[in-house]
């Protein structure tokens, strides 16, 4: 696999240490981003207070799990994300933080006493395919950038286990959001909302850009010699995954590209190999 180094300034943000809340009667404000299901502590309480103020949780719901990011808090976050036209991940990241802060600053709406409505079902043609969680430490924050690009790569080998281990090794300083093995199994290494290190220096449609900051990276296990076929199982999984990501983040078709299309200088990369069937993929997701 080709080593793709992140910018020198890219560093992983360490999770904040949870401490006891010092004040009970303070103005309701949005907590810092970076909360997810399973977290506990005062920042979760702050998030719950904000969701109550905006009407996405009830006081009764909060009282049974105050300070714990459980299923009810996750459902409320998803409902808020859906109303604000954000990806309904349930993860309280940078985009959700910004939207919550804006909603609170505008006054929000009063708390409700009855049960909240369930999150709306996700419409559209594609649902997220099954993925195997294989977290990589090689990521950092997007810096508030929206996802509008999907970049396809080949790994440079036919050894999926080895490729996966390399992208999970902190010494490699490379990663992708997803890897599709030869049998079609999909591994997720980095959360969509984080900035994986897969593209290096690049441009989009001729304009220099932080490709990693705006894109989702998908590695396909393939030698990349132009002779090794991409398997039917890989095309099937890639079509479902790319279709889902395109739909979820409203990615234009022109921004579904190969590493060869964005890497600079031109010719530095040839991903995803000359024998990759772009027509098959685009026909499947259009």
Summarize this structure as a short list of keywords or feature phrases.
10 strands, Lysozyme-like, 2 domains, hydrolase, disordered N terminus, Muramoyl-pentapeptide Carboxypeptidase, domain 1, alpha/beta, 286 residues, 12% strand
Structure overview:
It is a single chain. This protein is α/β, with parallel strands linked by helices. It folds into 2 domains: 25-121, Orthogonal Bundle (Muramoyl-pentapeptide Carboxypeptidase, domain 1); 132-285, Peptidoglycan recognition protein-like (Lysozyme-like, 3-Layer(aba) Sandwich), CATH 3.40.80.10. Helix content is 29%, strand content 12%. The protein contains 9 helices and 10 strands. It has helices at residues 42-53, 59-63, 71-83, 94-105, 160-167, 211-214, 232-249, 259-262, 278-285, and strands at residues 132-133, 139-141, 149-154, 178-180, 186-188, 194-196, 202-204, 207-209, 215-220, 256-258. Strands 1-5-4-9-3-10 form a 6-stranded mixed β-sheet. It has a two-stranded antiparallel ribbon with strand order 2-6. Helix 7 packs across helix 9 (278-285). Residues 3-25 and 109-123 have low confidence and may be disordered.
Q: What is the makeup of the main sheet?
A: 6 strands, mixed
Contiguous runs where pLDDT drops below 50 for at least 5 residues: 3-25, 109-123
The helix/strand order is HHHHEEEHEEEEEHEHEHH
- Can you tell me the CATH superfamily of the largest domain? Peptidoglycan recognition protein-like
Number of strands: 10
Mean pLDDT: 85
Broad structural category:
alpha/beta
Shape: elongated
Q: Tally the structural domains.
A: 2
- Strand composition percent: 5-15%
In CATH, the topology of the largest domain is named Lysozyme-like
Approximate helicity band? 25-40%
**Given this structure, which CATH class of the largest domain is correct?**
Alpha Beta
The side-by-side strand order for the widest beta sheet comes to: 1-5-4-9-3-10
Radius of gyration: 20 Å
Distance between the termini: 30 Å
Known CATH architecture of the largest domain: 3-Layer(aba) Sandwich
Helix tally equals: 9
